Amino acid sequence: MALTPVQPSQYSVRMIFDMALGAIVMGTVGTLIGFLTSPGTLPVAASIGIVLGVGVGIFGGRRFLTSIVVGTLLGGAFAWALAGPERISFGAGAGAAMGGFLGVQLSMLLDMWAERKRQTGPEDPQR
To answer: Model's pTM, two decimal places?
Structure first.
């Protein structure tokens, strides 16, 4: 009996990390949404969050996921400081939404600037 050689995976370590990060971040968001709506929707919301997070990770959305985490932390901290601990969840949710939106916009700008820089070529250092 001959052993077949092991095929290399189509997923790199970076992509697997992005998929895991996406599942954690979006799964947590889905879990919190399910917890706040009703306990019966918690498994469905968490599952949808995990699937969406893995999808975002496959497409390489590390900047997007990081912006959601940063927005969540800053929004929760601002809500705690301004309105007290009972409003942390509202501030964290608003911060996550704003962080995701700003993350997409920032990512588009960074990609556009990198493309423009690539098209113009390196600048002449003797000028």
So the answer is: 0.73
DSSP state of 105: H
- Residue partners of 110: CB distance under 8 A and separation at least 6: 63
Q: pLDDT (tens digit, 0 to 9) for every residue of the chain, 127 residues total? A: 566 665 666 778 888 999 999 999 999 888 888 887 888 898 999 999 999 999 999 988 888 899 999 999 999 999 999 999 999 888 888 898 899 899 889 888 988 999 998 888 766 566 5
Cβ neighbours, 10 Å, residue 32: 19
Q: 75 near 92, Cβ under 8 Å?
A: yes
Q: Which residues contact 26 (CB under 8 A, 6 or more apart)?
A: 49, 50, 52, 53, 56, 65
The identity of residue 57, as a single letter, is G
